[in-house]
Amino acid sequence: MTELKKSDFYFDLPQELIAQDPLEDRSSSRLLVLNKDTGAVSHHIFKEIIDYLHPGDCLVLNNTKVIPARLLGEREGTGAHVEVLLLKRREADVWETLVKPGKKCKPGTKLVFGDGLLKAEVLETVEEGNRLIRFEYQGIWEEVLDRLGEMPLPPYITHKLKDRNRYQTVYAKYEGSAAAPTAGLHFTTQLLEQIAAKGVNIAYVTLHVGLGTFRPVKEENVLEHHMHSEYYQVSEEAAELINRTKANGGRIICVGTTSCRTVESASDENGIIHAGCDNTEIFIYPGYRFKVLDALITNFHLPESTLVMLVSALAGRENVLNAYEEAIKERYRFFSFGDAMFITGQDDVIMDRNDAGTDCGIEQEAARGQDDEQNR
After folding, report:
1. To which H or E segment does residue 265 belong?
2. Positive or negative CA dihedral for 265, 252, 326, 317?
3. Does the pLDDT of residue 349 top 80, yes or no?
4. In the 8-state DSSP scheme, what is residue 216?
5. How many CB atoms lie within 10 A of CB 168?
């Protein structure tokens, strides 16, 4: 295939459009709807996403939970400051980490956090300069981490987070992520209840977000970029629900690129999801053939990032960059605490709430009854 260049995915983003704080009402952020077939865009409020979801569709959510993975401490004996970001648990008390400053933390270096409440030793340097670190502590690891750790907000967010729960989805369940699956931050419990009541299936999968999703692409030739692996798990219940939705002609709508990467990693060539757990290094860029996903709810991403490449694989690079240009012109808020985009197709007709009872009548009521039972 034709060489893909990193610079092909560049756009100029004004600094002031990078959202620094979450909105008070999660579902009041803006929503840009992009038709992937025509490139047409329209502007909405996020809670109106329900108008684009049809009975029998399946919304796929990543229920990973962000851990307070940022630890601030010092090197034992020198008092020099050090920052450790927990990326992935390798075994009981050994973690793969990102350390700053890395050059000063060679194997054998001892670290101290919270006046000795937590101690650590650098064991070795691994892939891409990450460090394996063994931690020592008294008591329960989760309680120590909750006391000493900070939420690992991306570096482009400079404001301090007042409520750490605002960097969690309302359905976060399984701890393990070093970053939030941010497309899910727009959902409230009430909105999810309304979506389920409409007859939309909701499937939960888990992918623990590491730096692989966000690591910058350094090579100009995109195909030379290597993704860092991330752990995912798909339950029997979720696999069955997604497969049944596909078989019945419903759409699979992933919330966020992490949910997308999970279902695409867990499926075979025929688009059948298989339950289980594994590590994935899947890298989705233009030319990729989606096996499961039909539509995607996502945030606005960094220029030249693997995430922009993923959404371009779904909607086409020109359509995506034109939509981003429109979002910039309309002063949308970008990145983790920013606004959202819904990428859907030409045939995905909006169904107005007021018309739902008359236009879809019996089929909708039947779907509601069946799917309400599944979602209890």
Report:
1. helix 257-265
2. positive
3. no
4. P
5. 19
Please state the separation of Cα 36 from the chain's center in Å.
20
Identify the structural domains of the chain with CATH numbers, from first to last: 6-66+164-375 (3.40.1780.10), 70-148 (2.40.10.240)
Q: Give dist(CA 267, CA 291) in Å, integer.
A: 7
Dump pLDDT digits (tens) for 84-142.
999 989 999 999 999 999 888 999 999 999 999 999 999 999 988 899 999 999 999 99
* Contact status, residue 9 vs residue 309, Cβ threshold 8 Å: yes
Contact predicate 108/131, CB 8 Å: no
- Answer whether 124's CB lies under 8 Å from 96's CB: no
Amino acid at 14: P
Taking only the tens place, the pLDDT of each residue in 212-261 is 666 789 999 999 998 888 999 999 999 999 999 999 999 999 999 999 99
Amino acid letter, residue 344? T
Q: Which amino acid is at 95?
A: W
Compute the average pLDDT of residues 37-57: 97
